[in-house]
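Retrotransposon gag domain-containing protein structure dump, as promised
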Amino acid sequence: MKELQCIPEVAGLNYEDLCIHPNLDLPEGFKVPKFDVFGGTGNPLAHLRVYCDQLVGVGRDEALLMRLFSRSLSGEALEWFTSHETRQWPSWNALAKDFIERFAYNVEIVPDRYSLEKMKQKSNESYREFAYRWRKEAARVRPPMSEKEIVEVFVRVQEPKYYDRIMLLVGAKFAEIVKVGETIEDGLRTGKIAVFFASYDPRVC
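structure tokens r here:
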């Protein structure tokens, strides 16, 4: 208890110091919406548009826009926001401008076919999560890829434990490949992959 009493006060930890527009009161009856979250990847301008759309009716209140913005952020984006002094941004435009400049590289660095073939499934993501992340990047390639090309490239990026089975699905739809990939993933996890595929022909999917 004595140790706690000896901890010196740290400046800048008051509510007024940590909060943007600390004197702002939310409008009566206003319910904070569940915002789409930006984690540091994707188009920052698109996120701002969605964020403002979710505040339709109260979005002209600049203080409210700034006050709630952190609720639409996570991960790297939230770390960026909280690393700044709350009074650094005198206006919503200043905050939005800094936000776009910070994450503009997401738009400037457009993936190509080569980078797609280098993408690998992370150890902490499921097959579906990897497929979704990969497909999202494939949609940004210019010139656009055909569905047939998307499937062909996706098959080539498979890990060895998936490849010998997924390769039989060239010509299938992307969603069908994902379903089979999840089945393989489940079989690997339960140890039943050999038994399962002894009576399973993925070409009939």
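Residues 195-200 have pLDDT under 50 and may be disordered.
lmk if u need the other ones
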